[in-house]
Every structure is written in structure tokens, then in C-alpha cells.
Specification:
about 45% strand; single chain; alpha+beta; four-stranded antiparallel β-sheet; 11 strands; about 20% helix
Length: about 190
Amino acid sequence: MFNDEFGRETRYENEDSQVFRYSRERRLKNAPDNVKEYYNGNFRMQKGIRVLFSNKANRVMLIALVVMTVFALIYSRMYSSGYKGSVAGYNAELTSFAFEERIYTSLKIGEKKAVAAQDKEPVKAEVLVRLYDVNKMVAVEETRTVLMEHEEEKFQITATDFDIVSAEAEIVVKGEKITIFTDVKR
């Protein structure tokens, strides 16, 4: 059924009270220009990077995205580097993980820059590794003296106490001291 005053009129068969009125010409008369262009087929989508700056909402979202990315990078730099450190020109990395009812903790100490073999003298490093349980009490403590003869030295500590949740290493090289820590990965 068509009605000139309201445009197209549609009635549902089951309910006489619901009426849907639709007139495209009447609706588009007061519509913005970009909507009229879209229905005429003249609308062109912006492509590429210009879409991010096309309107105020997109600019705000872009700025929010950039700010959140910067905060995430700053946060990850500040709080995730506890398991790595540097002392007297040597990098140190502490890792710890659980596997089959055992806790494996390894410490890797290496030089920042490779030095020629003839110029290099062995350097002694004192290492104290502590493993902490859920009550933050020392469950395992081990002291080692590492002679840095190669570019990189590694050693591992194995513990059977499955309540261990974190590890800490104090490294002293050439009178300089650093403490690094990590949680046990499960």
C-alpha cells in the first residue's frame, strides 16, 4: 500500500498496529552532503594514512593509540628488565623455570664487547644465588666463583623444592656489584 503523504507504507500481516514508513527522497532532503553523495554514487572513500586524520574522532583515537604505545614501552623497559643487568663491562641474565618437579635456575655472564683473545686476562666473578619459597624465605643458597675465560660463562642450579617461586643473583666483578632477580616460570 502506498501513501503519498508519508511515502511507502508497509503493514505486517500479523500485527495491524505496526507500520513502517519509508521515503528515501524525504529522508535525503535533510541529510548531510556526504550521505547524499553516497546514495548518488559519487562518494569516494579516503584511502591510506589520510583516513587516520580525516575527522576529529580518528585523530583522537590515533593520539590515544600513540600515547598507550609509549606508556607500554616505558612500562616494559622499567619493570621487565629485572632479570638482566650489567656489571663492570659484563652482561648478566638470570632465568628460572620449573620442569618435572624440579626448579632449574641458570645464570649467564658474558662480555658486552668481544675482546681479542691475546688482550684478554681471565676475570674472577663472585656469584651468590638465592632461591626463595612462597614465604619469601631463602630455600637454597649457593655461592660460586666464576673465572671469566671465555666470552660467555653459564652455570645452572637445580632444586627439588617445588615451593620455590623466585630467584636472585648477586654478582661481584672487579669490585662492582649488581643484584638481578626473576620469578620462576611454570
